[in-house]
Each structure stands twice: as structure tokens, then as C-alpha cells.
Amino acid sequence: MGVLSNDSRGFAISLDLLLALIPITLLLGFVAADMDNILFQIEDTVFRSSMDRTAGDAVNTLVATSGDPNNWENTGNPSIVGLAQYDTSKGAPDEGLLDPVKLGSVTEGQVQGLVGNNYNFYLNITTINKTGTRQVVKTLGNSSFGNAKDVVKVERIVQASKFKVVSSLIGQIRYTGGTRSFNIPSFPTSFNSNQTFDYWILIANNAGFTGATVSVNNFAINFTSANINNPALINSGFLKLNASNPTLFTNNTVSMNGTGPFPSSMDIYIVQTPKGTSSGDINTNTVVPKNCTFDFYLWLK
């Protein structure tokens, strides 16, 4: 076997290096030729990631928070808009339970403030029906997004109703003999809220009760077998209203005595409705929150 001379060794190393550089050179050529496409894909990924994050943050703010302040629907000037109903007993929002008053008050501009001016959005909330046509609960924004180049969609399952339940006792009222008393969670009112809303008592899913007396701040409202399934308007004189401090909310105590044979059960709701709402509009279909899809679409302007 021959042995490379010292002069030949340099040639062999150079040849190996040249062979190794060929694929690297080809690779660099391919990269250079496709650089525009690579940069476009990187840019598209960055923009898509930014849209995903913006849409997700906006939806989480809307469905999981009550906004800032949490009663912005009363003040009319939120720094951050949120739609979750605020539970005063817990001092925290009920995530996924949308407040009907907030839903009625929220504007397109307030939601636009969440996503910024670089994007268009469309919000569509509809009831989930196994059969029949879905009912639209709320829409906001630009529904003409079919020609948009890239659209991000975020979907959540939420609960919503037409009217707001401010207090309730559900699935816990069970008659065991004689006349039984029940304490129902208190609900807040103010002088200003009473100018805008009425407050009703709705007894629903009654199974056996023949009569009931609901007391609001110790003022009695009587239900007989003839009207126990009908909503009753709470006289504004029964409510705690402070005219000298019209924005101050004060809690109203509620209790109930019910009579009926064993076993009897019912659900009871204290319902807040806009002034002038007819009693015929107040029923479990409009009061009990329903499962809804919360669809949020976002795209670049």
C-alpha cells in the first residue's frame, strides 16, 4: 500500500474540505433563494401568535371577570369591561355566568378597547339548543369577516339569561311536615337602581306547596294555591332605598314560610327586570340561565 507524501497530505485535506463545503454551499443557496418565503412564514407566525394571545386575553376578561369597577354597568364608565356576574356574597365574579345588565350595557367601543385598534372583532352569543333554532343573546362588532385573510376564533361555553337573578334558593327547599321557614340570601338595592329596575318574586318548579309567605325586610307577600305559580312584584316601599345617598346599595333580607303536604319542593328566585317589564315575561325560560356558546372572532384590519 502506498503512503501519501507530505506534499500530498495537504491536497487530500483540501479535497475533503471542498467536498464538505459543497452541501453547505447548496444549503445556503437554497436558503437565500427561499429567504422571502421564510421571512413571510416567520412574520405570519408572529402575527398569528399575537392574534391568538389578544383574542384569548379578551375572551378571558369578558367571561371570567366583572370588569373594573365590578359594577361598571351602573357607573357607565368602566376602565376594563367584563361581563361575569359579580357575587356580592363571595366578593368575586361568577366565572362564565354572564350578567344580563352588563350584556345590555356593553358597547362595541368598550370591547374594541380590549383588543386594540389594529384588529376587527365579532362577538356572537347564542343559546345551545338540542333541537330548534338557536336564540341570539348578544352580537357586537363586524360580522363581515368572510374575506379576511386570517381569522382567529375563540369559543367558550357560558351561561346567560334575559333577566338577572339577584337571589335564589334552588334545589334546597324540601317540605318535611308542618309549616317550614326558609332563609333566602339577601339582595342589594339602591335608590338609583330602584329608578331603573323592578324586583320580582318567582316561585318555580313547585311540586306540592299550596301556599307561601315571602317576607322582604319583614314585609309580607302572600301566595295562595291560585297564584303561587305567578310572579309577584315587590313593592318598592318594602325595599331599602337611601334617597340622600342614591348610589348606596343596602342589603334586603328575605325569608319564606311554606305550607303543603309531604313531600313538597320548589325553587324561588328574586329577579331584577327593567322598569315596565310585564309579569307574563317573567318565567323560568327568561330567568334561569341557559348554556350558550360565546364565539369571538378576531382579525387584522
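the 2nd protein, sequnce then structure:
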Amino acid sequence: MKIFFTQLRSAILFISILPAGKKVVYSPLGMIKFFPVVGLILGGLLAVFDVCISRLWSPVVVALLDVIFLVVVTGAFHLDGLGDAADGLFSHRSKKRVLEIMKDSRIGMMGLVAVFCVLAIKTAGIYSVKTSSTPVQTMAMLLIIPAYARSAMIFGIRFLNYGRKGTGTGLDFFEKGIGVKDFFFVLIPVVISVFLGYKGLVLNLVFWVVLILILGFYKKTLNCITGDMLGALCEVIEAVLFLATGALIV
């Protein structure tokens, strides 16, 4: 049980700015399976935040504030990866040069455009969810979509090799292969989605399609993945799922 909470706390501190206690042992391989759990925690906080501010502002303002809330509680960690990944992947350079560009902390035009577009899509998606669904459906989507997005990173770690040799934020995740047991907590948002009926089925379909397309793009472009690309994967899937859910709920 002690190991369980140590690994969970490590995951919380790694992909969010939420407090998880002091002297937390960094457990890269142990924390991977807890990514969906951290997503559920973030989603739960987002749902509570949404309910509170919905009493004060219109849906469009609330949607924007919801997105800002996610940026704040994650420390813009995944957004930083999105910007770096976009600068590299869309530079049309060699693999070596692409990896060098992604490692540069400065954001370029492609990174800026990617971040803006993803935030805009996410805002539009949440607004559409809020204005086209019941309160229960809205809360469910706000809860599970962040978990789906962080679950996607586990698939990236499992099915693609790490692109950097001996360095990088994501290196520790690839030191040892991950197995079926590391996907156990992915089932939590999936089970919750079942109670959404047809909407849940479509949500899962969109998740798989987008996940396969992005990982396929990564494989074709670089035949590997990095920490920045994992962050981009998370952000893009989160934005697309909010948008797709908003379009499908009636």
C-alpha cells in the first residue's frame, strides 16, 4: 500500500502542480500506470471548478476559464511539450535536426500556432459540451476526458521507442518495457463512459482513431517518441475529445 501511494504521489507531482506531500520518491516506471488516475483527479477538480463558476458567468466565459484552469493545474507542462513538438515535427528537417529543435526551450511560430489552436479547440469543445448536454453529461465529460488524454501517453510509451539516447525528460519511462498491468487504471474512464450510452461508445471510437493517427504520424515521421511528443499527444487528444463530445451530444 505504501508503494501504491508513493507511485501515485510521484505521478501527481510529475504531471501537475497539485500538492502530494513532501519527500516524495521519484518513481518513473511506477508512476506510468497512474497517469489516468491523475487525469481523473484533474477532471474532478475541473468539474467542481466548472460548477462553481457557472453560477457567475455565461457558458462561453466558463469554457475559457475551464481551459485556463487546466493550464494552471498542469503547470502548462503538456502545452510546453506541444509547442516544442510542433516546432520540430513541422520543420521538415532531418530526424537529428528535429530532435534538436524540440530540445530548444524557445518556442517558434509553429509551436505558437499549435498551442493557440489546441487551446481554441479545447475552449470551443467545452463550450459546446456545456451548451448541448445535460449537467450530468457535462460533469462526466469534464471528469473522464482528462483521464483519456493522460491514458494516451501510456500507449505512446508502450508502442514507440524513445528517440533520444541517454537524455531527455521521458528517458526514465523507457528504461523497462511496460506490460498489461500498467493499463489497468485506463479501464476507469472507460467504465464510466459506458454509462453515457451511445455517446460513450463514440467517445471511445474517437479516442482510438485519434490515438492511432497520431502515433502513426510519429512513427512515419521520426519512428520514435519523446517527452515533448507525449505532451503533444495528451493535449491534442484532450482538445479533440472535448470538441467531438460537444458535437455528438444532443
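The CA atoms of residues 126 and 158 lie 30 Å apart. The chain has a mean pLDDT of 90.
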